[in-house]
Amino acid sequence: MKSSESLCAPNLAAGGGGSAGSREGTFFAIRPPWSLQQSLHLRAQLYRLIRGFFAERQVLEVETPILSGAGNTDPNIESFSTSFSGHVDAGARQRWLRTSPEFPLKRLLAAGIGDCYELGRVFRNGEAGGRHNPEFSMLEWYRVGWDHRALMAETIALVESALALVERRAEVVIVSYRQLFLDELGIDPVTASEQALIAPLLSWHIEPTGLSRDDLLDLLITHCLQPAFPHDRITVIHDYPASQCALAKVRPGEPPLAERFELYLGCHELANGYHELNDAAEQRRRFERDTRVRLARGAREVPFDENLLAVLGTMPDCAGVALGIERLLMCMAGTDAIADVLTFPFSEA
User: Fold this and answer.
1) Mean pLDDT computed over 77-86
2) How far is 26 from 74, CA to CA, in rounded Å?
3) Residue 182 in contact with residue 160, Cβ under 8 Å?
4) What is the pTM of this model?
5) At what angle do helices 325-333 and 148-165 cross, to 10 degrees?
6) How far apart are alpha carbons 124 and 126 in whole angstroms?
7) Cα dihedral 3/119/315/236 (nearest 10)
8) Cis before residue 255, ω within 30 degrees of 0?
């Protein structure tokens, strides 16, 4: 399931902490009433741009269910769930609010719908704070016959078009995952020992006990690399370790590489894309692996999307990417506070 995270340091001068307080108290002291109208107009402009961008490219806008009988197995994402009280013939009583439209979009691809995108609301339990809201907007799209490198270029073009709305430009840097670690930390993420991975994190007082190699690599990105990305730079990282394949294809070689990319604007992660896996048996194995991790962490088990697995083998070769709308709006508005680009944050919903 495509996701995005960000560990930028909050910029209080730009309205950080705007989710705190009430409309009668500190909230408007941080974000004055006029900026609410401004942020709504900016979102509307961005939505018009997105729809025009894909209309020119003949990518079809679609709408898929928000409630599903299947959950998200990703150990790092927690789904909201609810219960259906109607007739039992309608299907599973327990329903899950989507964390992404990925699975139904892939079912549409398998049905032959072709290039498509969805712009809509998604939900992630437990993700609330200065830069996270449990309910947010996601843009996800798929390109048939493309790989992750081709989709990287289109994602960059969309972000550049969005920045042009606010008269901003950004330098573009494209770098492989391995080269980024070598250039910035002097560490080879493929061959370095776990002790070498832990060393740069010691100043953060992180307790490494129980952390996997991939956990350490993720912490090096979020704590040591991502915060230093320049404000006016689009950074695209591609070709991840095979152990971080998520729903991406793995390219054989030494080392094998997951054909995925992540796009950052400044220190904000905006997008996560894959050359999509269309092997149902391998996808089931990955769901099972996720479940083992979830249970080991004491998290609840969630049902697999059997509807997806039933058709995944017929999905055409394609690439897909998910982009966080609020993250992009935050960059466009020059704020590190997600409340500044929401109508009402979670505390006031």
Assistant:
1) 92
2) 36
3) no
4) 0.88
5) 40
6) 7
7) -50
8) yes
Angle between helix 325-333 and helix 33-56 axes, rounded to 10 deg? 120
Whose structure tokens read 């991406």? 248
How long a stretch of residues is the chain?
349
Helix (H, G, I), strand (E, B) or coil at 127: coil
Helices (H), the chain: 26-30, 33-56, 102-110, 148-165, 177-185, 194-198, 213-219, 280-296, 306-311, 325-333
Query: Is pLDDT of 67 > 80?
Result: yes
Q: Superfamily for 12-348? A: Bira Bifunctional Protein; Domain 2 (3.30.930.10)
**Tokens representing residue 59 in the block:** 């990518």
Confidence band, pLDDT 50/70/90 cuts, at residue 174: very high
DSSP state letters, 178-198: HHHHHHHHS--TTT--HHHHH
Q: What is the pLDDT of residue 2?
A: 66
The whole-number pLDDT of residue 88 equals 72
Residues 6+ apart with CB under 8 A from 83: 93, 94, 95
Could you tell me the residue ranges of all domains in the chain?
12-348
Q: How many CB atoms lie within 10 A of CB 121?
A: 13
List C-alpha distances in Å: 97 to 63, 65, 106, 121, 176: 15, 9, 17, 10, 34
